[in-house]
Every structure is written in C-alpha cells, then in structure tokens.
Design goal:
With 349 residues, the protein is α/β, with parallel strands linked by helices. The protein contains 16 helices and 8 strands. It has a 4-stranded antiparallel beta sheet with strand order 2-3-1-4, with helices on one face. Strands 7-6-5-8 form a 4-stranded parallel beta sheet, with helices on one face. Strand 2 and strand 3 form a beta hairpin. The termini are far apart.
Length: 349
C-alpha cells in the first residue's frame, strides 16, 4: 500500500543520507544513526528499517563493490545502496513489485546498470578478498596468519553478531535476570562460556525495552570481554587496575567480581572516556572505583604506586578486527592505526 511505500522511500532516503555523511566524516554508522534518531525523533520501526538498509550495505560492501566495478560503475554511497537493494533476495528488475523496491527517482543510466545486476550477490569469478569482505590492508596479513583456514576465519567474521549482556551480580543472579528477560518476550539464552552472560540472537532490538538494562541489572558486553575480566580473577578486598578502561565496561565487570569491596582504579589516557563511565557506575551501584588519567611520558602518580596492585588488566590498543561482526562498517573505515604503529604503543603500555 501507499503508506508502506512511503515509509520504505523515507527509510531509503535516511539510509542514503547517513552513508553519504559517513563518506564525508568517517564516523561509525551506528553513532551516526543514533544521532539521526535523536535529531529526527525516529520511532523504533523507522530506526529498524534504516538500520537494516545500512547493514545490507556495510555487511556486504566488499562483494557489492566488486559487482559494481564489474558493471563499470564507481562504488559510492548511492550506487552501493541501489545495488544492495537490487541484489537482495527477490530484487525486482524495476523495483516495482518487490518488497525491497528500488527508489522511484533512479536515472535512466542507473536503471541500465541495475538491470545488468542479478542475484546472487556472489559469483565464482569474484576475487577472494571481496568475496570474504576483507579490506585490502588486511588481506595479506590474514592469509599469512591462517593459510588454508583463511576462508573459514573470514566467513565467521561476516556473520551477524548476537547481543550479549553481562549480568551485574551486585544486583541479580543470572537466573533472575534471564527469567525477567524471557518473561518480556525476548528469545534469550545463557552464554556458552561466561557464567554471568545472557545472549539474545539479534542485535536489532530496542535496548531500552530489555528488562534490567535501564536499572543496571544487565549491561551490553560481548562474551569475550566478559571472559577477559573473569580471567583476571579479581577478589573482594584487592587493589586492582583496569589500565585501558575506556568507558568502563570491564571496570563494571571487575567491580561485580570484587563485590564492591577493595580498590579498583580505572585508568585511561582519555579523560572524556573515563568521565563517560561515571553514570554507568552509578546505575550499576558500583562505588569502589576511582579514576586516573594517565599522563603521557612519565606518570609520577603511577610511578609512586609501582608494585602496589594485586592485579592489572591491560586491554591494549589493537587492530579492532574482533569488532567487525558487531560493526561491519569498521573494516572499511580503517579507524585504527596500522599494526606497525600499534606495536610500540602496546609495548609502552
């Protein structure tokens, strides 16, 4: 019907605007979408439609770009979005009768090259890096690291990430939190390895609707990060440091392990990032944390406290490859420094 078509056209226009904005400023799509939702007052359905369109482009950009180049078209935000819609299952020739129809305002030239594209997205003639959604800067390193296993590793990174939550054991048990989340109609399971984790199969949910999230009973955190914090084995009463704390997800996990007892110091070189952790700590009921901004060069505060801590967690700056499943556009943004530049930073940390 017309309202559905109008909503679809509006979502496509929003998605195109965000892809073009990202091309100019290089910010992550999830951050740009969150800003747009606030600025335009988009409802959950509108947000979900726009997010799905962005995901369709960013999670398949390597393959979409390969198909565009093969058709003699320059990859750009608009051509990528059009090709993504065309190459989705059921993409119709003119977009007229398909659920993910093409925008009406396509030019004659666009309609010509779009008509030459047909599903499936992948073809045998496609180069391996494009097929596996691996940016050129990372391809040779992946091949060297994994050899014959490179296909399996990169295919795994193409999959959509689930939404993992860490249960704040200062406020509830996992059983209590899981029961509340399931009672609200969410498909939720225990994480396979973390004893304090809950997994929702899809990230496409309104976080505010998850029971316990606003109250600090659960906090979004990948299971891998939960395990890193648990492996530190912090105990109540100890002196513990979270050395590259950022906004403090692992700090909260450590505080819960310590049962709010002892001293936990959250450190980072970025004062603003540490400040962003304060409301999260308050919401979680955490009060055994102090913060310290690390001074570049020689930090006298740190030097005076040498060998005074029981445990130190170091989450050093890295390539960010582990976040590709959660933020597929990150692989194309290249926001992290090359590994050659990161190695001395890691050694210094």
């Amino acid at each position: 019907g017309k309202p559905a078509a109008q909503a679809q056209a509006a979502a496509q226009a929003e998605a195109l605007g965000l892809l073009e904005l990202q091309a100019k400023c290089g910010a992550p799509l999830d951050a740009l979408l969150a800003q747009r939702v606030r600025a335009r007052g988009l409802g959950p359905e509108e947000r979900s439609s726009v997010a799905a369109l962005l995901e369709g482009v960013s999670r398949r950009q390597g393959r979409i770009d390969a198909r565009l180049r093969a058709a003699g078209v320059t990859p750009a935000p608009r051509s990528r979005l059009l090709a993504s819609l065309r190459l989705s299952d059921g993409g119709a020739g003119d977009g007229g009768d398909c659920g993910v129809g093409l925008p009406e305002q396509t030019t004659a030239a666009e309609r010509r090259w779009l008509s030459s594209l047909s599903p499936p997205l992948e073809g045998a003639e496609m180069d391996a890096a494009s097929r596996l959604e691996c940016p050129s800067w990372a391809w040779e390193r992946f091949r060297a690291a994994y050899g014959d296993g490179v296909d399996a590793e990169l295919r795994a990174l193409q999959l959509d990430a689930p939404l993992d939550l860490r249960v704040n054991t200062l406020k509830a048990t996992r059983h209590e939190a899981l029961t509340a989340i399931r009672s609200a109609g969410f498909a939720a399971e225990r994480t396979p390895y973390s004893p304090v984790g809950i997994r929702l199969p899809s990230r496409a949910v309104a976080l505010g609707a998850i029971p316990g999230l606003r109250e600090g009973v659960v906090d979004p955190q990948d299971e891998g990060s939960q395990l890193v914090a648990l492996l530190l084995g912090a105990k109540p009463g100890e002196h513990v440091v979270d050395y590259c704390a950022g906004a403090g997800g692992k700090t909260l996990a450590l505080a819960a392990q310590m049962r709010n007892k002892g001293r936990l110091v959250a450190m980072d070189v970025d004062h603003a990032r540490l400040e962003r952790g304060a409301p999260r700590r308050k919401k979680a009921g955490v009060d055994n944390v102090q913060t310290h901004v690390i001074e570049q060069g020689k930090d006298k505060w740190l030097k005076r406290r040498k060998r005074t801590f029981d445990r130190v967690l170091v989450d050093a700056p890295c390539s960010g490859v582990g976040a590709w499943r959660r933020n597929p556009d990150a692989r194309w943004l290249r926001r992290t420094r090359p590994i050659e530049e990161l190695l001395p930073v890691q050694a210094d940390v």
